[in-house]
Design a protein that fits this description.
The structure holds two protein chains of two kinds.
Chain A (H helix, E strand, L loop, with lengths): L16 H11 L1 H15 L6 H25 L7 H16 L9 H23 L4 H21 L1 H4 L16 E2 L2 E2 H7 L1 H24 L1 H11 L1 H6 L4 H27 L10 H14 L4 H28 L16 H15 L8 H11 L1
Antiparallel strand pairs in A: 1-2
Helix pairs in contact in A: 1-2, 2-9, 3-9, 3-12, 3-13, 3-14, 4-5, 4-6, 4-12, 5-12, 8-9, 9-10, 10-12, 13-14
Chain B lengths: L8 H13 L26 H32 L6 H19 L6 H31 L8 H22 L4 E2 L19 H23 L1 H11 L1 H6 L4 H27 L1 E2 L3 H16 L4 H21 L5 H15 L14
The chains are: A mainly alpha, B mainly alpha.
Chain lengths: 370, 350
């Protein structure tokens, strides 16, 4: 998607022409990406259709993965149930806004309440379990994910069972700004949601950068590197881990809110199962633990593989008439799992730090090799 | 098969749902609605006999879970890897078992041939899964011995996807039924408790395998080497243990136990599908953690506990809540006993 951020000082920033532009792109890849993504819907008409919805979902998964990155990347705690918090966010959003319930508060208020509540649930799960060792914590998060999925599926009176909760009204329903009905605009043109998700993603990226540099962010990394040493330096490991847990849950909750609002339904509870958690975890690890551009790239690759490359390759195979008998051995989708699995294995074998490693991690690995 | 337990219809229904549905939960949207609360019995029967029957089912199921859990716990104990591919390895074992049953026409063979055939199946699938597990270790995990801890875990997830894809090509996308090879006559006198050939088969295979395993680990040279590597690989290498060979042996034994489990699974549950590995692996892994991951008796105890919890909660609360109850109990136990039921408390080393 975008080239890796370079940690080289810009030596030839005065150079003009093509080299200068390249240098600028390398230095400020984020700004360039933001501008390109912001202009794209105005230039590419397809983004006003189904494609726009897909890209919106991609942005939402990026937010989810950035939330997971706080726990797995910065703090080094394996989390196998992030989809549960994604789901909790989505269902809280729905409960606060669907006509079935008496609340029906606005989008912004519902988002704030859901995010705070999701963080609270994260705290409630984390407080008793954070003293567990790594793998035990991983299985607790996995178990929590299963409990949430089963509960969402079975509490039919509250969650609507397999039907999910709908319709979730679009943001700004009933709000009129200068003669423009915002709710209607969101419902008709997917580009509104595209921009909303892009804005949220940009906000989360900025927040994550600030967090990375903050006292808390450095404490997360310290606990990841060596918990005992960090404690000896006066960091309360429990409190730091708990804050990471809460932050992860909150960001995942935010992603869930946007997801439910953009689909205008919570979808069925299977959308929040272990597979989703694993996919997001793989995206974070594939891209590079603790690296913001890496996480985004990882999500783009995984989601792009499923929603863009696989259907395209299938239709290409169909067009070239390679597979007249319709055998699954000759269709691209038939190999989807194997290709995905092989990619994970190869990346871990040859580039365990991820595709776009965080500077700190890359430096450490480099040091080890020297 | 549906009507064979007319004497106690209520119980038969529960047993049917437990056996028929636990392997791979239906992924078809809406299928869960078929078990709505109105269709469940108003109040579960409270007779002691019903309770005993559920315990019996639970212990038999639990023995099967324990056999799979051993594969997780052995690998974890020796290289600290959560082998996510283990469940899918067992799925491949079940694929091979089904293919062999079809190829040799075991479904129509006489009683002696059937028992011999089952023994052959267990050996063949055990060898297959064990060898496959060793190959995966050599190719995928071995280069990552010194990599960051997450790398082998993610590789294992990758291997699990590859296995699932192979299973998809082998079995096709929908579930396949595994032929009933054993007569379903009740072995216990009277009309009360049910204990069929299938239940007997599980115990006849699982209990000796577990005894053999504990003998191997406690008394043989290889077992001593395994324990040494598990405690400290560097120190073990210093005193002359060939660490790589011990790890390979561990993968082989864990995989072979899984292969045996896959045959019993097919004969006992009678439905296999390419997605069965995930759910079963999850339960078995939970059992291993519950008992204290790395501890062999722990895996057995954990498996039996998971089996009991599953059957009792299916009978008294409703099958659709089983998954939630199993994991809720797991979380509660871990909160109060973070090292698992039989695990050792490890001190953080500087």
């Amino acid at each position: 998607m975008t080239p890796a951020p370079s940690n080289l000082p810009s030596q030839n920033s005065t150079a003009s022409g093509w080299a200068g532009i390249r240098e600028f792109v390398r230095e400020r890849w984020d700004l360039v990406a933001l501008v390109v993504l912001a202009v794209a819907p105005l230039v590419v008409p397809a983004l006003g259709g189904a494609l726009g919805g897909q890209v919106t979902t991609l942005f939402i998964y990026c937010i989810l993965a950035l939330g997971l990155n706080v726990m797995v990347g910065y703090t080094g705690l394996v989390h196998l149930g992030i989809a549960a918090f994604f789901g909790i966010g989505a269902y809280l959003m729905a409960i606060l806004t669907v006509p079935m319930y008496p609340f029906q508060i606005g989008f912004l208020a519902a988002t704030i309440v859901s995010v705070l509540a999701t963080a609270g649930i994260g705290l409630a799960l984390g407080a008793p379990t954070l003293r567990l060792r790594g793998d035990y914590l991983a299985i607790v998060t996995l178990g929590f994910g299963e409990v949430v999925k089963v509960t969402l599926r079975n509490l039919e009176q509250i969650t609507g069972g397999m039907k999910g909760l709908n319709p979730v009204p679009p943001p700004g329903a009933g709000v009129k700004v200068g003669g423009l009905d915002l709710g209607l605009a969101f419902a008709i043109d997917p580009r509104w949601f595209y921009y909303l998700a892009l804005l949220a993603l940009a906000g989360v990226v900025v927040a994550m950068r600030r967090l990375e540099q903050s006292r808390l962010g450095r404490a997360w990394v310290a606990v990841r590197e060596d918990e005992l040493a960090a404690s000896a330096m006066g960091i309360s490991a429990t409190r730091v881990k708990l804050s990471a847990f809460a932050m992860s849950s909150a960001v995942a909750g935010l992603a869930g809110c946007l997801y439910a609002a953009s689909l205008s339904t919570t979808a069925d509870p299977n959308a929040y199962d272990f597979n989703r958690s694993i996919m997001v975890l793989c995206a974070v690890i594939l891209g590079g633990l603790g690296s913001i551009p890496g996480t985004i790239l990882g999500v783009a690759i995984l989601v792009g593989f499923d929603t863009v490359l696989a259907p395209w390759a299938d239709s290409w195979i169909q067009q070239m008439n390679i597979n007249p008998t319709g055998s699954s051995l000759l269709s691209f989708s038939g190999w989807r799992l194997a290709i995905f699995g092989l990619a994970l294995v190869l990346v871990m074998r040859y580039r365990p730090e991820g595709l776009v490693p965080s500077r700190r991690l890359a430096a450490e690995l480099h040091e080890d090799h020297a | 098969m549906v009507n064979r337990r007319v004497a106690v219809p209520q119980m038969a229904q529960h047993q049917q749902t437990l056996r028929g549905k636990t392997p791979a939960p239906p992924v078809v949207p809406g299928s869960w609605k078929t078990v709505s609360s109105s269709q469940l019995p108003e109040s579960p029967p409270v007779s002691a006999q019903f309770f005993l029957q559920q315990c019996l089912i639970g212990l038999t199921n639990g023995a099967l879970v324990a056999l799979v859990a051993l594969g997780y716990t052995m690998v974890y104990g020796i290289i600290g890897l959560i082998n996510f591919a283990h469940g899918d390895l067992i799925m491949l074992g079940a694929c091979l078992a089904l293919s062999l049953v079809t190829a040799f026409g075991l479904a129509t063979a006489g009683p002696t041939a059937t028992w011999l055939g089952i023994a052959m199946l267990i050996v063949a699938c055990g060898l297959f899964c064990g060898t496959l597990n060793v190959c995966v270790d050599r190719i995928v995990y071995k280069p990552l011995r010194n990599a960051p801890k997450l790398a082998p875990l993610v590789s294992a997830i990758g291997v699990s996807f590859i296995f699932m894809n192979i299973g998809l090509f082998w079995l096709g996308p929908s579930d396949r039924s595994f032929p009933e090879l054993l007569p379903s006559t009740n072995l216990l006198p009277g009309e009360g408790l049910q204990f069929t050939w299938k239940d007997l088969l599980v115990l006849v295979v699982v209990v000796p395998l577990m005894l053999a395993l504990s003998l191997l680990v406690q008394t043989t040279r290889l077992g001593r080497a395994m324990r040494a590597v598990s405690q400290d690989p560097t120190a073990a290498a210093l005193v002359g243990v060939d660490v790589d060979r011990v790890i390979a042996a561990t993968f082989f034994i864990g995989g072979a136990l899984g292969g045996a489990a896959s045959v019993i699974y097919g004969l006992y549950i009678n439905t296999i599908g390419f997605q069965m590995g995930f759910q079963n692996g999850l339960y078995a892994f939970t059992a291993a953690v519950l008992g204290g991951i790395g501890s062999i008796p722990g895996a057995v105890v954990g498996g039996l506990v998971i089996g009991l919890v599953r059957s009792l909660s299916s009978a008294y609360v409703g099958e659709r809540w089983t998954g939630a109850i199993v994991f809720a109990i797991l979380i509660v136990i871990l909160v109060f006993r973070p090292e698992g039921l039989l695990g050792r408390r490890t001190k953080e080393k500087v």
